[in-house]
Design goal:
This protein is an alpha/beta fold. The chain contains 4 helices and 3 strands, in the order αβαβαβα.
């Protein structure tokens, strides 16, 4: 990623699934996520019920986010998804696909799509529709 569009990964360890009920594990993960977010940051939750956007639409959103001037935080849920508190904190919800992917793969897919959206905005030939 270019310097003006740096990505930083903050990993929240998933709660042990055998030790806790799913709802409690998801809630604890969500609490740890929310502790990492500054009140001024824009939060985008990746959620299956989010808005499905094309690469071009993501590039447009990227432009709006840049003009907004706030840092953008993307929330990617663990194996059991995002806690409701995370979804409520989100300024918007986006879906990369109607399919379900492992959260580790989603990080790579999101980074690639953000790079592709950035190159599209910059007029770089990387994105070829």
């Amino acid at each position: 990623m270019p310097r003006e569009f740096a990505l930083r990964l903050s990993e929240i360890p998933i709660a042990p699934r055998k030790a806790l009920p799913v709802d409690r594990a998801r809630r604890e993960e969500g609490e740890r996520m929310l502790q990492q977010i500054d009140a001024a940051e824009r939060v985008v939750a990746l959620a299956v019920d989010g808005i499905v956007v094309t690469t071009e639409e993501l590039a447009q959103r990227l432009g709006r986010w840049e003009r907004d001037g706030r840092d953008v935080v993307f929330l990617i849920g663990g194996p059991d998804g995002l806690d409701e508190a995370c979804l409520e904190r989100a300024d918007e919800r986006v879906s990369l696909s109607a399919l379900t992917f492992p959260h580790g793969l989603v990080r790579v897919m999101l980074a690639e799509q953000l790079y592709r959206a950035w190159t599209l905005r910059a007029g770089h030939p990387y994105h070829r529709a």
